[in-house]
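Class, look over these structure tokens:
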Amino acid sequence: MKATTFEHLKSIHDKFGPGIFGKIAQKLLALAFCDAGFSHIVERGVQGVDIDAANPEGMRYTLEVKTTEGESILISEENIEALKDRAKDGYVPLIAVLRVRMFEDWMFANVPLSDLRPGSLALSRLRAYRVRDLETLVRPIFEAVVNQHFGDVLARGERYLSEILAQRRGGHT
């Protein structure tokens, strides 16, 4: 990602801390999927997978979203079960990771669910399962979303993004 986008994300991270930052990044990613032409977006703040995204061409993804500054992420049994549940409905299960570092971008990994275990998961292990075409589609749109909404996110936080997502869904929450 570009330096300006990284600086915006870092400012949000510094202001709100890692927990709230993760929720904000998740909502920004959901908005990026909207702008990428995914007309069916379900973003969950609690319980279940974090984002479902489907487009008119039949692409259907379910994403467990993680942010980190380190070399690994934590995957819980609940995360794995939620991905399995959505996969039964025809969604491609993905682990979406944003490492908050200069020159890093979203990584979307389609790890076989049978290979996932609760605990620490090294980012290097995810690289073999990357969905590069989706990364290529979403990354520049995510940057545009971050840069467009940065000021309002910094001022109003997660609540602002929840309102924008509700507007995009026609008022449905």
In short: Residues 3-168 form a domain with the Trna Endonuclease; Chain: A, domain 1 fold (CATH 3.40.1350.10).
